[in-house]
Amino acid sequence: MPVADAEKIEQFVEHLWLHQGVSDHTQASYRNDLKQFSRFLSGLSHQGLIAVQQSDLEDFLLQRRAAGVSPRSTARFLSAAKKFYQFAVKQRWLLSDPTQRLARPKQPQAIPHSLSEYDVEALLSAPDTALAIELRDRAMLEVVYAAGLRVSELVGLRFAQLSLTQGLVKVIGKGDKERLVPLGEEAVSWLQQYLRQARASIHRDGGDWVFITNRGGPLTRQTFWHRIRCYAERAGIRSHLSPHTLRHAFATHLLNHGADLRVLQMLLGHSDLSTTQIYTHVARERLTSLHQQHHPRG
């Protein structure tokens, strides 16, 4: 990859971080996508990212399709490319944006996997709360399910974000956007038990992190995901799981019990209502299943 391309990619990624608050994960994905495109251009003896035409981008997309790259990954590359070339025009590296007329590939709407209310109860009850670490995990599971947090939001939770007297958590979501979410009595109760009985025995000085490891720092997302899988196995849950399974369950169960879609959008921290609407498909499938199971002519 040409040095000039690498430098411009880094300038672009730094711009995303400084001015748009883009997450580390998205920064890494965009950087990798643009480096792949730069290497593709180098293989064509091309002058680099700043000398491209729309046809070069179309050729790269055709190559990705032939290689079996998913539409979701292609859409992410296009997002990276469009933002990069918009930035490039503002920096006057080039006069026009070669991505301006590129159409985004249509993606099938992915239905998030959820758990039944019975399975959620089994999962929440799986930790042995006589053990300090597992009492911590029970509190974490309760908070995720009660507030619909992303795993990154949960493991990064600090005391300044909690108000146990009011039963609220201030969540710092994507793009550093804040939202206030109720915790509910059950989650508050388990949080209080963890803080009184377990946190100090896990580590004496955990700083201002709410959930800590025996080294005193916060858990990683990967560690918490591993522990969810262990508890699911212990509870005998065979359903598909993902790191956000309890977040999906939070959304689905609220809808099943009559929550308003706009309220759910606020609780989940979605900037676009269309992102939240996907949960209506899950709720509809659940209603259809219940109808078939219980209606005499189902």
TrEMBL record:
Site-specific tyrosine recombinase, which acts by catalyzing the cutting and rejoining of the recombining DNA molecules. The XerC-XerD complex is essential to convert dimers of the bacterial chromosome into monomers to permit their segregation at cell division. It also contributes to the segregational stability of plasmids. It comes from the Bacteria. Residues 110-292 form the Tyr recombinase domain. Forms a cyclic heterotetrameric complex composed of two molecules of XerC and two molecules of XerD. NCBIfam families: PRK00283.1, recomb_XerA_Arch, recomb_XerD. GO terms for cellular component: cytoplasm. The active site is at residues 150, 174, 244, 247, 270, 279. GO terms for biological process: cell division; chromosome segregation; DNA transposition. Residues 3-89 form the Core-binding (CB) domain. Keywords: Cell cycle, Cell division, Chromosome partition, Cytoplasm, DNA integration, DNA recombination, DNA-binding. Gene3D superfamilies: 1.10.150.130, Intergrase catalytic core. This is Tyrosine recombinase XerD. The keyword Cell division applies. Belongs to the 'phage' integrase family. XerD subfamily. GO terms for molecular function: DNA binding; tyrosine-based site-specific recombinase activity. It is found in: Cytoplasm. It holds the Pfam family Phage_int_SAM_1. InterPro entries: CB, DNA_brk_join_enz, Integrase-like_cat_sf, Integrase_catalytic, Integrase_recombinase_N, Integrase_SAM-like_N, Recomb_XerD, Tyrosine_recombinase_XerC/XerD.
